[in-house]
Input
Amino acid sequence: MDALLKLDTHLENRHAQLKALKDHGRKIIGFTAGGYFPEELALACDAEAICFIEAGNNTALMNAGGYTCRWFDPFWRSQIAYLTSGKDPYYNIADLIVVPVTDNHVRNFSNVLGYFTPEKESFVFGVPHVKDKIALDYYLKGITRLRNRLEEFTGKEITDARLKQSIDLCNRERELFRQISLLRKSGEYFIQGRDFIKLNHGSYLADKEFMIDILEMYLREIKETACHPKGGPSLLLTGSTLAHGDSKVMDIIEECGGNTVVEEFAECIRPYHETVDTEGNLMKNLAESYFMKRVCPGWFRPGTERLNLLIKLAKEYNVDGLIWYQLMFRESYKVESFFFPQMLKKEAGIPMFVVESEYDAMEAGPMRTRIETFIETIKR
Amino acid sequence: MKGYYDDLFRLCGFEDEEINSERSRIKATLEKLELGPEDMERADAWVREYHDISLAGVRKLLGAWLKELIDLVLAKEEGKKIVYFGFPAILGPGLMLSASSKDVFVSAPDMVLDHTMGQIFNKLTPILEAGEANGLPPGHAMCSLWQAKVGGVAKGIIPVPDFALASSYYCDMGSKADDLVTALYGTPIAYIDGIMDSKWGEFPGFLPDRVEYLGAQINQALKMGEEALGIKIAPDAWEISRESSRPFRDNLVRLVDLMKADPVPVSIVELELLEALSGSSTGRGIREGVKAMDILVKELDKRVRAGVGVTEKGAPRVMVRLGHTSDPRVTRVIEDAGLAVPLTFILGSFGGVRVEPKGAYNTPGEIIANYEMTGGYYHGTDAQIQFYEKATQIMNLDGFIAQYLYNCRPVATISHAQRRYLEEKTGLPVLSLEIDNFDSRTHSADSLRTKVETFAEMLRARKRSASQIDFI
Output
């Protein structure tokens, strides 16, 4: 796919491009994964927004050991390692790090950021764990404080006109992701799971307008390409986080003949199902879309909305099985993985299978055997 | 007619008439718990070895826990509506529900199981294993307190609750495990949500938004409680609950004051029984706890006047986060190494650092939330660490054993920062110690002994050398 090649080239040069922009006074806003940072706010004050999505390397976890104990999710320990290393290009280039605090794994990162790297400018705001009017108000107050901080930090006022323009841009991106994803539902087009993930990861680092061009190009290419649906079982892949650099589970699934047709992750995969309304109070619209309408991650209480979505996706995408990618010590997801298989079997009639990861290379062998066996089982 | 359990219950502070009047309830409870004569013998030896039974107040305290256990185990059969809350807890909502109806039993059942099946009967393991088999597996750093709760319900030894108050203001695990209980048994939950989103260094400041949010969540949970339990919260429930727990708090303040003595008059093992009771019971446990404390305060006062203590006079004094809830051996390791423990984090919140909330709020939820934000425990990590720092002068400390619970993320996040912070701010040595405060199977007394003994030796040497320098 030319679109993917073009994206690769852009990302290779992206850091240099950001450096040049920074040298010319543009502010770089780094934000942590989770989908609760409205990028529109950064774009509306003419800043560049990049998300910290790198993980998957076990060495990073060892380095994180100087700042935290090991009983946290490896993705967030990786972020601690990259933050404190002083060597990560994206953490280094960010002028301001924004942390929407969700669960205690993110809070742990926020603590390290505040205590061990006080020289880094940061802004922390909280995301409630329940959905109601009070929670929506709290989130809205949080992103309003963020808006004020960004205005102050960049020296640019976020006008309604600029904000609307940014929302339109981000809506277009979400719309394109949705269109691409929905093509997989029909079974008429073949989109490799890893390509969809790659587009997602790219969108967290790439220039927004460039990314939209890439997505449009990709969509055209897919529609023009002769259809070659893969014969293997269709799978739904889910979990808390699917980071850039953490390709092991996806690689093994595809090598074993599985075909990931839909995925659901809260971190490092963009929530693309909802768009933001551009009429009325735009800040309220952002809060509505980013907090209320978005299907909640696994740390939400209760987590039933997400579990119901998984059942819906399983049915709509007509999958043969669900693979639950569990990062070690992310307890919210682990608890749900105990009682969800019965729900899934009852509601969608498909089996679920859990694989766990601590980003250790040694996992690959046993993970392959287990995934291979699962795929063989559901083939029959 | 004498029962096989009489001697143990007497050892645990029950009067003969109490045993006789409760005999049928005791029998029914022990049957449910599958505790027979052999268990009583083992418990007798265990209590004598690891608790300071020379103090009548301690024996009464053990009895208070047993009474809470009996009420818990039989609550359903006795027609009560049952509410469970998570530990650590913002206690107000539970106390208010409890104060509003005699037909409602409100408790933290995991803590009750830890302090009775662990501290008295030394038989917690099968319950923990049942928790592991029912959704909270080993090897994933799951909360062992929750393993006890889920295991207790799964084994049928504690009843399925009618309503749950989830501690969504603190940990993720608790609320998710409440979800698990709902998935398995259909229990309705009120998630009391809060967000610990303060930036490092913000404490003692906080945004009013946080009080308003947490306060509204508490008020909302109370409404849900009314609906789920079919009760009406009394208009004066907040005042009643504050008033009913006041003697307990006042006594804790007096006890903490006595712990300023050198030598410290009692083991932290016994004070843990108290601090935990105040955070676990809303009913008979608290009332009986107050009686026990009245006795204990007098006994300890005598010890202080006589210069009697559990460690040598002049022993290095360390503050710990908290004592072990189910296995007294783990806490004893510290005192066995010759260290005096005058204060824990939780005790300190009663008698150590004063909490004086500012701001005027009218609803119970906001008043509670304002207190909690000012106190710091549910504010953020730096607030918790500052708590240790402030205790240094109050208790004349020589060091800290800064435990962190590996399987409790809100506490585990403190692991590295607290050591560096306290060393820098106080100049005192800090032992950062990974523990499981609720389950001693992996983090046993023996696994911690070498670290604690080495630290104790270092503190003694430091104290010796400081006194020599003073002399010179």
Observations:
- The mean pLDDT of chain B is 94.
